[in-house]
Amino acid sequence: MKILIVNTYDIEGGAARASYRLHNALLDGGVKSEMLVYNKSSDNYTVVGPVVKKQKVLAKVQMLLDPLPLIFYKNRTKTYFSPACAPFSNIVNDINKMNADIVHLHWINDGMISIEDLAKIKAPIVWTLHDMWPFTGGCHYSEGCERYEKKCGKCKVLVSEKENDLSRKIYIRKQKAFLKKENITIVGLSKWLITCSKKSSLLKSKKHVNIPNLINIENFKSYDRDQARVLWNLPKNKKLLLFGAMDATSDPRKGFKELNEALHKIKNKEDIELVIFGSSRPKQNQNLGFKIHYLGKIYDDVSLVTLFSAVDIVLVPSLEENLSNVIMEGLACATPVVAFNIGGNSDMIEHKINGYLAKQNNTEDLANGIEWVLNESNYDDICQNARNKVVTNFSQEIVLEQYLELYNTIINN
User: Fold this and answer.
1) Fewest beta carbons within 10 Å, which of 124, 167, 226, 344?
2) Span 174-182, mean pLDDT?
3) Banded pLDDT at 90 (limits 50, 70, 90)
4) Based on the domain organization, do 407 and 330 belong to the same domain?
């Protein structure tokens, strides 16, 4: 069995880290796996990316060209939107030359591959959904819009009132490609996203399987809290709240505004401080009512483990979320998580057992959740429940077995 993992990046971003972990788990399990990326940051020889200068320049040009159609939608929201034009990409030729039994697609945007080239992939495709893009007219999250269940147009993300707008045109391109490429199996990481995909007019006819991300529980486990705080130069005598994501404070979907509102509603603030990673200190200080420690971007797992172990609560106030790496990693390190009850969060957080699920977009309830975890007398039990949830449901061995079963079924058929 030979599996080809395809993702735009190898270790930058949530989808990259998740697909990279699957790739390494396959190798650990004795499966021949290669990973093809358009932007390589690691030195892993099993990851194939642009090598010569010309290829690297071309990849950057593709990334710049891909969003050009969006210039006609100057009032669009900040939600990520990908036209996937990729006029110069030869990536499909590279995919076919690698002669895999299964091509496993993950996040393939930022100019990596055009929609039309999907139909040219010869091997059966498994496509793990890291967001909604594969079944929408271009948006990665629909902002609550359900027009992907029909044929898009009048796109909420583009702030368009036209039926035949860019989202409709992208929808039609996908429709044609998916009709040509029948052997596509869809993997939904969360129950929420797989439900959305099954409702979509583009992918509802495809086979769907629910398999979550995996995590190496030998790498992600609790570290001594006091030592972790020393490593990060954090106070030992404070309750620490952790908030983090890619562009943590600038992406509206990550819920920094809602977090701000919730933190101002917390009553007893004297012993609490906030830790933020994924963003550096802004020019203008944020007044959240707490002292803030800005740690910037973090790329390696060792740093993440010590950070998750150093804090009392992980906060994930995202307004739209699939299956958050931050939630899974925090729970694996035996740290309770407080989040809104949206997307795939309930797949991992059990309300008042290993964390707290606040009512959707309800900042007062988010504040209640923070106070509940901090003040619970059985806090240590909540921490142990957090760890147990990941060990039982998301460990590398358990999830890898599900993927191998899927791969074998596709190959045998």
Assistant:
1) 226
2) 95
3) confident
4) no
Shared domain for 184 and 68, answered yes or no, is: yes
309 within 8 A of 223, measured Cβ to Cβ: yes
Residue 171 within any structural domain of the chain? yes
Sorted by sequence, the CB contacts under 8 Å of residue 94 that are 6+ apart come out as 36, 48
Q: Number of structural domains, the chain?
A: 2
Residues with Cβ within 8 Å of residue 223, at least 6 apart in sequence = 305, 306, 309, 310, 333
> In 3D, which of 166, 171, 237 has the Cα closest to residue 200?
171
Dihedral, CA atoms, 245, 113, 9, 136, nearest 10 degrees?
20
Please state the φ and ψ torsions of residue 229, each to the nearest 5 degrees: -70, -35
**Percentages of the chain per state (helix, strand, coil), in multiples of 5:** 40, 15, 45
Cα separation, 375 vs 182, in Å, equals 53
CA distances from 328 to 210, 324, 347 (A): 16, 6, 10
pLDDT exceeds 80 at position 52: no
| 38 shares its domain with 178 | yes
> For residue 350, with 0-12 CB atoms within 10 Å meaning exposed, 13-18 middle and 19 or more buried, which class applies?
middle
* Backbone torsions φ then ψ of 277, nearest 5 degrees: -125, 160
pLDDT of residue 246: 66
DSSP string for residues in 345-383: GGGTPPBTTTEEEEPTT-HHHHHHHHHHHHH-TTHHHHH
Q: Taking the complete model, does pTM exceed 0.85, yes or no?
A: yes
62 and 13 part of one domain: yes
Q: Is 54 exposed, middle or buried (0-12, 13-18, 19+ CB in 10 A)?
A: exposed
Determine phi and psi for 388, rounding to 5 degrees: -65, -35
Look-up of token digits 């990665």: 140
Strand partners, 395: 215
Q: How much of the chain, in percent, has pLDDT values that exceed 70?
A: 97
Residue 304: closest CA among 197, 228, 252, 393: 228
Decide if 6 is inside a domain.
Answer: yes
pLDDT given at position 380: 97
Residue 404 maps to a domain: yes
Is-contact 128 106, C-beta < 8 A?
yes
* Structural domain of 62: 2-214+395-412
